Amino acid sequence: MMMNRKYKALSSIYYLWILLFIIAPIAMLLYQSFFDIYGSFTFANYISYFTSGNYVKMTLNSFLTAFLITITTLFLAYPFAYFLCSSKNKEIFLLLVTLPTWINLLLKAYAFIGLLSKQGTIAKFLGLASQGILFTNPAFVLVASYVELPFMILPIFRALDSIPKEYLIASEDLGASKWQTFTKIIFPLSMDGVIAGSQAVFIPSLSLFLITRIIGGNKIITLGTAVEEHYLVTQNWGMGATIGLVLIVLMFVVMSILNTRKDIK
């Protein structure tokens, strides 16, 4: 009886946290989305979003950039996580993976300005020292992928590391090649990590705006930058709230699709 009361007390804190920091902010966004820049009640924000070609283009561009960032991090993270599982110094490498997450995002973004600009190290390596690659789509995808990379590596590593070694030994005893073992056993059993990592990368990438501004300049426009523009520049908070709600809905849709595929698998 005492344990049940203890668990109820602890769960009430959890529900209070959800109410204050998830439900309440979304409710405030919903309320604000029905007002125009003059404070009058209106449905014009939603009508404008779903009938404007510019917002449709921003939505598609946001999905495209988020998809490119996710694919880039996946191609970089999976081999590294695979290598990490067979390494004798897992703890050290895991520490090196998580270390960049302790550094402020703004500092990391500004550090890349020097690397990607004219005469920067990366620009010289790519043979583009005369013009640099700052304020370009490849530069934006590169920096965003670097920032999101740990969130792809860790779930994949966890999934790979949890595969029983007996499965691999049995595959080898049955005469399977290393490629067959990977494609038939290792990769399918690590799909939970791939899906979790893809969610952890794709969803935040939909609403990026800080890296978009610093690395992409004004050449890359996404829904995240549109929200920033409406809140800080045009002061049209109603339209900014509307775009924010659309982003939240899109994120839930993506999560539902990925989780559905995981359940089917």
TrEMBL record:
Belongs to the binding-protein-dependent transport system permease family. CysTW subfamily. Keywords: Cell membrane, Membrane, Transmembrane, Transmembrane helix, Transport. Residues 59-258 form the ABC transmembrane type-1 domain. It is found in: Cell membrane. This is ABC transporter, permease protein. InterPro entries: MetI-like, MetI-like_sf. It is a multi-pass membrane protein. GO terms for biological process: transmembrane transport. The chain crosses the membrane at residues 12-31, 63-85, 92-113, 133-157, 194-216, 236-258. GO terms for cellular component: plasma membrane. It comes from Anaerococcus tetradius. It holds the Pfam family BPD_transp_1.
